[in-house]
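step: validate -> pass
step: tokenize input -> pass
step: predict -> running
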Amino acid sequence: MTVYYVAIGDNGTSGPMIGCGDSLVATTTAPVRFTDQVGPSIRTLLANKSRAVGMSGLVNVLYQSNLTYLGGELDGSTITISLSGQFMLSGVCDIPRAKAQLEFTAMAASGATNARVFVNGRSIDDVLSLK
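step: predict -> pass
step: emit ->
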């Protein structure tokens, strides 16, 4: 199972560049067999209540958030996941980090090339908008 975390200030060296000069880095857990890989992967990500990911130097910006995975649907190359709850983030740079962690984890689990995330029925962009 693949879960994504953030390398702060890495400037795309360790993975795709996101947000404020950070990188998104894939981590893998022991092989787990599920028909649906998305639910277990997102639940694993949301269950991690520690900011630091072991001694890796990676960060989980979702660690304070109170989010629950409700379901996912793969339509062609797009995975759509639904969550309930609320984000607890530490500043504006955590917005693209949180979005990327969720989207890339869902895409890795589903094999999709696009991801849409909804929280309490609203798109993640609307939920995390500073407007």
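step: describe -> Strands lie at 2-7, 17-18, 22-28, 52-53, 58-59, 66-75, 78-86, 114-119, 122-123.
step: cleanup -> pass
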